[in-house]
């Protein structure tokens, strides 16, 4: 019995002195912090990093190395935006680009999961042809153009890029093309006619 009592006393002493026993008191505070952490509202926009490049600037003291990030954001319901951010490290350049992209969100017309008509978007030396496609076609596009199209919420489309394949130019040309789209209702309203008359 005496041996058992000694063992129990040692176990209780070890529990009190062990770090696990010490953690019992602040555990509630930490638990509360974890519950408070998700204060950030769930963003309605989905983010996609298209490219991250190293850029150097030659100054009097030598070269300064920075990172340039191209980010596209969209809600999949016709709203999409792009932004370019530069910083000394990758994470902060992506954050800058994301805030700029959210500030420059535009609305794109979508009809039955595709675009209302064909159009050619141009920016600098890049031009992209956007063609509407029937249900089941999917998104046939290059990596940089695909990011804009998918985040805009377009499900079926066929694209072809001509000229420069620079990612920034491709994304901006795609945006120019999407922003040039018009629905039948918009055209009828501008002409002062009904949709049937058109």
Break the fold down into its secondary structure elements and pairings.
Elements: H1 2-17, H2 19-22, H3 27-36, E1 46-59, E2 62-74, E3 79-87, H4 90-103, E4 106-107, E5 119-123, E6 126-132, E7 139-140, H5 143-152, E8 157-163, H6 167-179, H7 184-191
Parallel strand pairs: 7-8
Antiparallel strand pairs: 1-2, 2-3, 3-4, 5-6, 6-8
Helix pairs in contact: 5-6
Which key phrases capture this entry?
disordered N terminus, four-stranded antiparallel beta sheet, 198 residues, 2 domains, single chain, 8 strands, Double Stranded RNA Binding Domain, 7 helices, Ribosomal Protein S5, domain 2, alpha+beta
Structural class: alpha+beta
In DSSP terms (H or I, runs of 4 or more residues), the helix count works out at 7
The CATH architecture category of the largest domain equals 2-Layer Sandwich
- Estimate percent helicity: 25-40%
How much of the sequence is in beta strands?
25-35%
Q: Compute the separation of the termini in Å.
A: 100 Å
What's the main sheet like? Answer: 4 strands, antiparallel
CATH topology of the largest domain: Ribosomal Protein S5, domain 2
Report the CATH C-level class of the largest domain.
Alpha Beta
What is the string of SSEs from the N terminus onward?
HHHEEEHEEEEHEHH
